[in-house]
Amino acid sequence: MSKAPLLSVKNVKTHYGPVEALRGVSLDVHEGEIVALIGANGAGKSTLLMTICGDPRASEGQIVYDGNDITQTPLHQMVRLGIAQSPEGRRIFPRMSVLENLQLGAFAGDPANFEADIARVFRLFPRLAERSSQRAGTMSGGEQQMLAIGRALMSRPRLLLLDEPSLGLAPLLVAQIFDTIREINRSEAVTVLLVEQNAYHALRLAHRGYVLVNGAIRLSGTGPELLANPDIQQAYLAGGKG
């Protein structure tokens, strides 16, 4: 019998007032995978990540993490369970230094691990080491994205939720960020659920993927299967290889 998924979203519905943003979404993420969730802007991708974290709450359905129902788990407990999120728009603290932002990411961790965790983040993102004392808001968009991911890693997550990590970045930086996500998954043994509008890069990176359309899953498959799908190519990949 196959091992249960690390994360299982089961027929989840989410509402913003009377508007149904997620319409019975189900997906699985197994330990060690990178799973990509692609779709057009407004399809509900970010809403799904936020629902997993409990803000907003699922109005129907169930979210199971590591065998435990977390549908009603308070947001502040997610980090202690081993779930970390790098949100859309980065949401770093611009007036604080790079190091101070990383320290905030470690608030729920064991202080004995702090130096090792800082060293790990600086190994993955050498630019952050060079700018450790710099105010985060004065860095480039790419550097701020590195910081957002690094901050999430400071809690030593088993599951990393990444929301649009390539948003607004130049193509060279996009490639660098995706290479680092692969390294985090392979070398750091972190499972990744990736929400991304850049379907080409996401599906090249992912072991498996799901396509979200108007709040519902329409297609799923391996990364190569979805890349080769003519409907995916027409809808999401035309001109999207930057």
Condensed summary:
With 242 residues, the chain is α/β, with parallel strands linked by helices. Helix content is 37%, strand content 25%.
Structure description:
Helices cover 37% and strands 25% of the residues. It is α/β, with parallel strands linked by helices and 242 residues long. It has a domain at 1-82 and 160-165 and 191-242: P-loop containing nucleotide triphosphate hydrolases (Rossmann fold, 3-Layer(aba) Sandwich). It has a six-stranded mixed β-sheet, with helices on both faces. A four-stranded antiparallel β-sheet has the order 2-1-4-5, covered by helices on one side. Strand 4 and strand 5 form a beta hairpin. Helix 3 packs parallel to helix 6 (141-153). The protein is globular, with a radius of gyration of 17 Å.
Biggest sheet: strand arrangement: 6-7-8-3-9-10
Give me the secondary-structure category. Answer: alpha/beta
What does the radius of gyration come to?
17 Å
Low-confidence stretches: none
Biggest sheet, in brief?
A: 6 strands, mixed
CATH class of the domain at 1-82 and 160-165 and 191-242: Alpha Beta
How is the CATH topology of the domain at 1-82 and 160-165 and 191-242 named? Answer: Rossmann fold
| Percent range of helical residues | 25-40%
SSE string, helices as H and strands as E: EEEHEEHEHHHHEHEHEEHH
| Overall 3D shape | globular
The CATH fourth-level homologous superfamily of the domain at 1-82 and 160-165 and 191-242: P-loop containing nucleotide triphosphate hydrolases
Our measurement of the CA-to-CA distance between the termini, rounded to an integer number of angstroms, reads 41 Å
